[in-house]
Structures are given as C-alpha cells and as structure tokens.
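From: lab user (bench 3)
To: helpdesk
Subject: output format question, protein + calcium ion

Hello, I'm new to running complex predictions and I'm not sure whether the block I got back is the full result or only part of it. Here's what I submitted:
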Amino acid sequence: MSGKTILIVEDEKPIRDMVAFGLRRAGFEVVEAEDCAAARARIADRRPDLVLADWMLPDTSGLELTRQLKRDPETRDLPIILLTARAEETDKVTGLEGGADDYVTKPFSPRELAARINAVLRRGSVGGAEEVIEADGLRMDVAGHRVMVGERGIALGPTEYRLLNFFMTHPDRVYSRSQLLDRVWGGNVYVEERTVDVHIRRLRKALEETGHDRLVQTVRGAGYRFSTKPD
Ligand code: CA
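Helpdesk reply: Thanks, we reran it on our side. This is the complete output you should expect:
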C-alpha cells in the first residue's frame, strides 16, 4: 500500500512489536530502534519517511531526540510523531515551541496511529524551508521552528504552529473549516470541524499578549482569514 518506511523508537519490546505489527498491517515498512543512539544510526543508514518516537527512552528522551533531529539540517524535514503516556508529557509536547509534527497519547488504536501517520506524511513536515515569514512584527523562523515578536518567543503547540504557518504563507484569503482541516491537518478523518475552532482559539490566546491575535480573523459564515489589514 503506502510503502513508506517508519522508524519506531521504543525501548519496550512488547510495545514496539505491537506497534510494528499494526503498522505493517497498515502497509508500512518498519525499522526499529531501542534507543536514541540506535535511532540516529538507523537514520544515518537509511532515511525513513517518518520517525515515531516514544517519550520515555533509556538514553535520551524522545523529546530530546526530536530537538536533535530538528536542529540538524540533514534531518530537519524528517516528520516526527511523539508517543506520550502521561498527561504531563502531553502538556510539554503541546507547549513546545518547536519539535514534533504531531503526538499521539497512549493508549491508541493501530488504526488511529496509522491515520495520524498518514496525515503527517500527506502534509509533510513543517520544518524545512530556510526562511523567515513576517507579518506586522510577528516572525516565524521556519528553519529554527520558532515564532517571535521582537526578542520574545511565542510558545505554540504543534497544531497551532502548523496553523499559523499555513496562515502566514496564505494571507488575505478566507479558508473554511474543512479547507483548513484538509491543508493543516492533512484531511485526518479523526478530526472534527469544531477542532479547528479549538485550535484557532488557542492560537489567538498565544498571540494575544502582543496583540497579534487580531491577525486571525473570523469571517462570519465562511471561515477564517489571516490578514494584517483591519478586519
Ligand atoms: Ca519507552
């Protein structure tokens, strides 16, 4: 089916086996690593299409692995999904300024995991382009995976980051919720349209303190628009 290669980084063999089994059934090729050092060796060996890394690993955390890979120009574009077990880990992942392309909280069904992987693969990693996008003093450093206003960093969850990235690269146009789902979430069937509103609200909240929430505009009956021009 997809033929894409997924690298699973997980030290607990029963979980790794279970995830690998599910992904093979979903048509993926699977490569396994038991820790970050092994993961980096596998990536250097043969680059996978996506990395699925557990948060809890014996050497370095999955989060730190994500940071390392996103810092390295060679692996910056490699999409990463983090597996988290506890609410506090999820909080940290969602609070990340840069890093994982998505995260999945345990327990998850093999179908849901495959759907999330496909969604990330379809839209590609948000990292990559060597550029800084700017709108009214709000700067997105795409290569550094950072959003700044002056010297101040704006903390965004992975979804809010992607949403803002999409808006900043497609300004002054109205997008419906379903168009945003398609473009930002990769048409993930597990996401409902009202999820868009939830993330719009979080994005606005994150931008509120510097007044940039005004750039995320509601267009009644149509959807949302990102614009530096008044609403
Ligand atoms: Ca683990």
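A quick orientation on your result: The two ends are 46 Å apart (CA to CA). Let us know if anything else is unclear.
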